[in-house]
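User: Here's a chain of 521 residues. Predict its fold as tokens.
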Amino acid sequence: MTPNSAPAKAERVGIVLVHGVGEQRRFEHLDGETRSLIAALRTEAKHWNAASDTDNAQITVEIAGATDSTFLAGQDTWTRGPQATVRIIAKGFASGDDATASSEIHFHVHEVWWADVNEPYSLSKQVRFWLWGLSIWRYPGKEASSLPSADLVMPPNVPGNSWLPVWTRLRLLGLGVVFALLGFSIGTILFLLKRLFDLDPPQLLQTITNYVSGVKLYNQRRRFGLGLVPSDEEFLDTIGEPPRVSIRRRMIRTIAEVACNDYDRWYILAHSLGSVAAFNGLMETSWAWPGYLDQPLWQKLIAHFPPMAGPPKPGWTPPTGNTVPQRPVWGGTDIAYRQRIFERFRGLLTYGCPLEKFAAIWPARVPISRTRAFGLDTVWVNVFDPVDPISGVLKQFAGQPPECCPHPQNVGYAASSVLLLSHIRYLTPKKPVPDLATSVMRWLLGGIDVPGQGTNTFGRYQFKAGDRTARLRSALAWATWIAAFLVLAGLGGFVLPLVLKAAASAGAGFRHALSNLFAGH
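Assistant: Prediction complete.
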């Protein structure tokens, strides 16, 4: 049996994982998140077998390896393509009339990887990043799209929330101040440790620059390369276009491939900034779709039965003007049939999601579609933690019918009590269960209740927006930020005199050397 074949009774479920900001290597996010889901599934198997007094619940994991590999490669090569990279076979998890030893669910796991779109690290990148970080609170807003197909979408801002952009900008100002203190105090100390004591401390500033600059990248018009005066370094298929187009292209291409695989149902699990890419892919207009795909994949959509792309309805007038990305020369007036593409799409899970912040400052970057494409059984679950400064409750994305954009269901989850760590520990297994990973796995198995609802809750880790637990975690976050500010300010006060003294000494030595040089003449 081939890696992607399935017996007649097997249900085929597609899972698309989208990573957020960071320096993830290929398949690194897929590996980490899938491990958490597998751990949750194994725990479920133990409980399932204990409850039924059988060993019917079994799990097998397969990796699609490549036929070729690099000469003298240090590790095996995984395959990325139209088919899934990882397949998880869950046997014996059905209930009721379907409870047979042969019942199987095959999870086909895909990854949207875009970390390489980020700019290569350099001194000029670090300078641009810190200038951007200190000015982001005054970064120009982008209220609405001016593209030809802009009438097919709407910005997410809801009237009556004029305070949200101001509050968001004030928080960004505070965040910029904290990172400025971090860069000055900790950065100086690490520099001195390396130069004076020949130690090799962590490259903290480089890590922060490469990690957070993903957010900056999403709002840039150009992608820069190396060099003190860097030149443009877009990808070949995105020359003259913003780098976010490259990220969206990865997302939309994966959506097209998964739709063509005819899974019985499929889901998107998006973390951090990856939730913005996922949302863009779900909301992109039918007219813009051809610009994201190559011709063979577009023809595959057209040849699918029923077709997922092709000519528009008679009498429809296509928009005029250039699109971003530009439509291909082979596109004609063909459009994507989004309703057919998302016919079997059942849910979006966002965690550590910054969409509300984009809605407050750059709503044109996260437009909502005005056209119907989703079934009423398609759900959107947004998991947030007040300790995580990136996440937030989504309130600005319910301005259209759910067939145009599923209305987000916000669920609080105690990912971690440690600031910043909370952003990366949503799917980390916890004890006692159920945790988020367990709840998500029960949902993917075909449970009726979505994560955080009905009988499929997160147990002790779950709370609601605005309740006592949410307020306490928000207070914890504020206390941690204030403590970090005071500590960094204290370190800055300690480091600044040393820096000024060293600068004065270096200046005096330089002047003395110059005077001796001229005196010699």
